[in-house]
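Lab meeting, item 3. Inverse folding demo.
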């Protein structure tokens, strides 16, 4: 990751969350960079270089790195330091099974509790999908689509208002975000070609939105299941070889 970009993103995080612990802001910046593969899998995070670049001590950097290790994004190797982990078939498969189990339930309850203002905000999130060119497979386009996807699902979680469901989801949030980005970068859909996957995903999320707006939780659950089941994870990994 470019040092100047890291400085800018850290400064923005500090400005947005000035009361949060320094290591928490470091963790969020580094986590996003790893999920978006700005630090490629297998590369090393140099705590000294990060500390020097951001003009902080090594102590909060090491704390942030240990938090990343707890999230499974990095692994510590004696003599080599912290290395970025690489998503594998089993981890992506398992988190997709988790998402199939919980996200349709979140949609079902969001449909019950969404108010008119919530519907407007959800529509605004959906517009972010529409603003991405479905034929553009550039890294920037993929990132923008990822953030649209993330924002949409975050809003649904908030609408659900169930502390137990949200707590379970939050525990696996990093893995969920990594799987979302991974599926956006390496798309495989049973029903459409790779270049059309973003367009198909917009349509599915539009169906989820319509279900929530109609307060139809069952319809929302089915739309969510349809969306998550379109990915053939094994074929996706084979296509990368």
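The presenter then showed the designed sequence:
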């Amino acid at each position: 990751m470019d040092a100047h970009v890291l400085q800018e993103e850290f400064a923005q995080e500090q400005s947005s969350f000035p009361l949060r612990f320094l290591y928490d802001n470091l963790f969020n910046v580094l986590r996003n960079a790893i999920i978006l593969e700005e630090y490629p899998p297998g590369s090393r995070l140099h705590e000294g270089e990060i500390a020097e670049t951001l003009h902080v001590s090594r102590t909060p950097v090491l704390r942030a790195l240990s938090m990343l290790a707890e999230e499974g994004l990095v692994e510590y190797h004696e003599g080599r330091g912290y290395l970025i982990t690489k998503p594998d078939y089993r981890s992506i498969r398992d988190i997709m099974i988790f998402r199939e189990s919980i996200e349709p339930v979140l949609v079902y309850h969001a449909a019950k509790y969404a108010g008119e203002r919530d519907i407007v905000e959800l529509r605004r999130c959906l517009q972010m999908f529409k603003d991405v060119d479905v034929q553009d497979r550039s890294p920037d386009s993929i990132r923008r689509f990822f953030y649209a996807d993330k924002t949409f699902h975050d809003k649904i979680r908030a609408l659900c208002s169930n502390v137990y469901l949200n707590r379970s989801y939050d525990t696996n949030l990093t893995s969920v975000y990594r799987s979302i980005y991974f599926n956006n970068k390496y798309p495989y859909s049973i029903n459409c070609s790779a270049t059309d996957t973003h367009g198909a995903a917009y349509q599915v999320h539009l169906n989820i939105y319509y279900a929530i707006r109609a307060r139809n939780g069952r319809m929302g659950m089915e739309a969510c299941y349809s969306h998550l089941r379109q990915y053939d994870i094994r074929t996706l990994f084979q296509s990368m070889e």
